[in-house]
Amino acid sequence: MLRPTKEMLPFKVVYHEKYDLNLGPHVFPSQKFRLIAEALIAEKIATAEDFAKPDPAGDEDILRVHAPDWVRKLKTGTLSAREVMLLEIPYSRELVDAVWLAAGGSILAAQCALRDGFAANLGGGFHHAYPNHGEGFCAIHDVAVAIRRLQADGAIRKAMVVDTDVHHGNGTAAIFQKDPSVFTISIHQENNYPAHKPPSSIDLNMMDRADDEEYLAALLPALQKALDEFRPELLFYIGGADPFCEDQLGGLSLTKKGLMERDRRVFEEARRRGVPVATALAGGYARRVEDTVRIHVNTILAARDVAGQFPVSVALRG
Ligand SMILES: [Zn+2]
User: Fold this and answer.
1) What is the C-alpha to C-alpha distance for residues 122 and 106, in angstroms, rounded to an integer?
2) What is the per-residue pLDDT across 246-279, written as a single tens digit (0 to 9) for each?
3) How confident is the model at residue 4 (pLDDT cuts 50, 70, 90)?
4) Dist. CA 4 → ligand 1 center (Å)
5) What pLDDT, on a 0 to 100 scale, did the predictor assign at position 313?
6) For the purposes of burial, counting CB atoms within 10 Å of the CB of 127, is it exposed (0-12), middle (13-18) or buried (19 or more)?
7) In angstroms, rounded to a whole number, what is the distance separating the alpha carbons of residues 315 and 318?
8) Per-position DSSP letters for 95-150, written without gaps between them
9) HSE-up of residue 278 (Cα within 13 Å, Cβ side)
10) What is the mean pLDDT of the segment spanning 195-206?
11) Neighbours of 53 (CB within 10 A)
């Protein structure tokens, strides 16, 4: 007889089948959320017990970040044509359900990370969402919602967002610009969307076609210094798959190996300082969706490796 399945990962992966935005043939491969979850099971990286299913964020959670008017428009389907154009994905009830769930997923991931040292939301990372409008496939800023919720609960005071999506984290920067309790780092291709880049705490502007070595040489010293000086109680990692050399919306030249090394090094820097890490996905537009899925799966593998290196009792209590 088979033994009952047990957890295989030292942390939770947060996922809901309704993360899929059901966009059909769109450059945003929203089926990737499901494909990543399926790959983790198929490749015996995780079992069903490693998964945690989020509830949708409460409206009170969303409203800590977003303007009541924007929330009302999303809930009632009354976006203007210009607002839909900026969002760059069609409006639907499913979209609203999916982004409320993604925000709930990032809240749950952040809570699990405080307990276990790590947690991964297999969704979210909607870093282009502003308080009063959506942009670039992002309607609700799940990571900001999660940070504000944990602060409101008194679970953390200071958080850091490390955003490695190839596109600048403009929504994150705008939301936390005047907030000394949240430190934001964005490493992105300078010559790419969004045109307007409000300042993050640190912006690392990469030149076109920057490779693995140039990228890590920019990211690591800045991250180390920021962690030492700011000393966050939680690091939220927005792990973009779109700095990949074959990405259709990116212009950097990172390899899959380089991207996994990036993830691993960020996690190591955080965990050796005892900082819990929650991850969210963000963008990935490789011509072959398998490549995007692989890069996101590799983020989970990098987290697993680093979690083994820095066990939670040492990391969080040491
Ligand atoms: Zn992106």
Assistant:
1) 9
2) 999 999 999 999 999 999 999 999 999 999 999 9
3) low
4) 40
5) 60
6) buried
7) 6
8) HHHHHHHHHHHHHHHHHHHHHHSEEEESS---TT--SS--BTTBSS-HHHHHHHHH
9) 31
10) 97
11) 13
Distance from the alpha carbon of residue 28 to the mean position of ligand 1, in angstroms: 10
Task: Please state whether 124 falls in left (phi above 0), alpha (psi between -120 and 50) or beta.
Answer: left
The contacts of residue 123 (CB under 8 Å, 6+ apart) are: 14, 15, 16, 19, 33, 101, 102, 105, 106, 142, 280, 281
Mean pLDDT across the chain: 95
CA of 171 to the centre of ligand 1 (A): 12
Tell me: the pLDDT tens digits for 33-85?
A: 999 999 999 999 999 999 999 999 999 999 999 999 999 999 999 999 999 99
Position 210, amino acid: A
Q: Please choose, from the candidates 198, 182, 173, 299, the residue with its C-alpha nearest in 3D space to the C-alpha of residue 243.
A: 299
The whole-number pLDDT of residue 298 equals 98
Residue with tokens 């640190």: 202
Ligand 1 centre to CA of 14 (Å) is 21
Name the token pair of 163: 């955003």
Report H helices in the chain: 32-42, 59-62, 68-76, 81-87, 93-116, 142-152, 170-176, 212-230, 256-272, 289-309, 312-317
Six token digits for residue 158: 């200071």
Give the Cα separation of 191 and 250 in Å (integer).
Answer: 10
Distance 139 CA to ligand 1 centre (A): 14
CA of 313 to the centre of ligand 1 (A): 34
pLDDT at 314 over 50: no
Whole-number Å distance, alpha carbon 49 to ligand 1 midpoint, is 30
